[in-house]
Specification:
A hairpin with a 2-residue loop joins strand 1 and strand 2. The chain starts with a strand and ends with a strand. It is globular, with a radius of gyration of 18 Å. It is α+β, with helices and mostly antiparallel strands. The strands form two sheets. A six-stranded antiparallel β-barrel has the order 3-4-5-8-7-6. The chain has a two-stranded antiparallel sheet with strand order 1-2.
Length: 171
Amino acid sequence: MSAFRLGRGHATQPTSPAPTTEQVWERLGRASFAVISHVTAAGTPRSTGVMCAVQDGRAFIVIAADSWKARQIADGDEVAVTVPLRRGGVLSLLAPIPPATVSFRARATVHPAGSVARSAPARLTRLLPRDRRSGCVLELTPVGTFLTYGVGVSLWSMARPSAAMAHVPVS
């Protein structure tokens, strides 16, 4: 049964049901790119795009041992993660279709340099150039809820934030 939003005393177009937690994890499992953000010790916001893989309810990224991420993100730190999810199929090659996104807060666990082979999912390790396989692994455990935009809704619905956005429990 569809839910309806009320506006000015009458029903408007039906809203889409929120995606399930399982649907969000399934979409995240297909992603290989994310943007992580945090605040540096000096209080400056910082974000960067990273290759990632999701496995067993966590996101994994590999970082260079001497990178700003390795210097700034410590065990237990909280980061923000946004994962763009490609959509639109063949149509996206012809039209500017925005990606859907999943954003969430995550608690970081830092695995030391050289731990890629035992800490990162094989799917991520295969994507890395050989010289990056000696880096550190950030294991990101989502907390709270996922904020989704455009997940499980039509392209037309993405034009209406109230229909395209949902808060979905992490577990």
